[in-house]
Amino acid sequence: MPLPNRVTPYGEIVRAPERGTLLGNRGRLHRITPDGDPELVRSHRTRNWLACLLEFNGRRRTVMGPRSYTELFFLDEVTALAAGHRPCAECRNRDLGRFKRAVGLTAAAQVDQCLAADRMTAQGTQRTRPMAFAELPEGALFDWQGAPWLRWHGDVLRWSLGGYRERCADSLAPAEVTVLTPLLTVRALRAGYVPGVHPSAEELSRS
C-alpha cells in the first residue's frame, strides 16, 4: 500500500502510487504503529513548510522512518506552492531568493509568517478566496467544478496526482474562481516568479 505522503493542491496528504517531483517538509507528522507501519497523526508541526529537491548532496533517507521528519511529495512546484509551501533555503536557495524578491521580503521567517496566515483558517482547514479569473496569474491553481485547475500559457489544465489530464482555453473558465494558491504566492507569481511545472503541462500546451 502506498505511504500517506502525497500532497494535493488543497493541502491534503493522501496515499497514491504516483511519484512526485519535489520533496516537502512540515515537520514530523507520523508515528510508527506496532505493526511497523507509518501512519499520519497530524497535518503539520512547523510553520515553515518547505519544498525541496528530491536529490541534494548525495543524501539518502528512509522515507517516513522512525526518527525523521515526514517526507511529503508533490507533483510539481505549482502544487507545492498551492498547498502553502515555499522553496527550501538550503537546497533551493536561489529559488527562495527569487521568491523573496518577488514579494518584497528579506527573510525566510517573514515568508513563513505570511504563508501561515494565508493558508490556514482558525479551524485548521485550507484558506481559499474568491478572485476574478482575469486577476489570476499563470502558475496559480484554483478550484473549478470540484477539481484543481492550473492557469498556464493561455489555457487551464486539470490537475491530477499523476499529471495534468485535460486542457481548455482560459476563456472558458468562470469569471470568478476559488483560488487555492495563497495570496502571498499569487503576489510572487504576478511579480514574475516562474514556478516549476510537471512535464505533462507542457505536453498538453503543445498538443
The proportion of strand residues reads 25-35%
Query: Which ranges are low-confidence, i.e. pLDDT below 50, for 5 or more consecutive residues?
Result: none
Any idea what the shape is? globular
- Taken together, the total number of domains comes to 1
| Structure summary, number of beta strands | 14
Task: Give the proportion of residues in helices.
Answer: 10-25%
Give the helix/strand layout.
Elements: E1 4-7, E2 13-15, E3 22-25, E4 30-32, E5 38-40, E6 50-52, E7 72-74, H1 77-82, E8 86-87, H2 93-103, H3 108-119, E9 129-132, E10 141-144, E11 147-152, E12 155-160, E13 163-169, E14 176-179, H4 183-190, H5 199-206
Parallel strand pairs: 6-8
Antiparallel strand pairs: 1-2, 3-6, 3-7, 4-5, 9-14, 10-11, 10-14, 11-12, 12-13
Helix pairs in contact: 2-4
Question: Could you explain the architecture of this structure?
Answer:
With 207 residues, the protein is an alpha+beta fold. A six-stranded antiparallel sheet has the order 9-14-10-11-12-13. It has a four-stranded mixed sheet with strand order 7-3-6-8. The model has no long low-confidence stretch (mean pLDDT 92). Helix content is 22%, strand content 27%. The N and C termini lie far apart (34 Å). It has helices spanning 77-82, 93-103, 108-119, 183-190, 199-206, and strands at residues 4-7, 13-15, 22-25, 30-32, 38-40, 50-52, 72-74, 86-87, 129-132, 141-144, 147-152, 155-160, 163-169, 176-179. The protein has five helices and 14 strands. The protein has one domain (4-206).
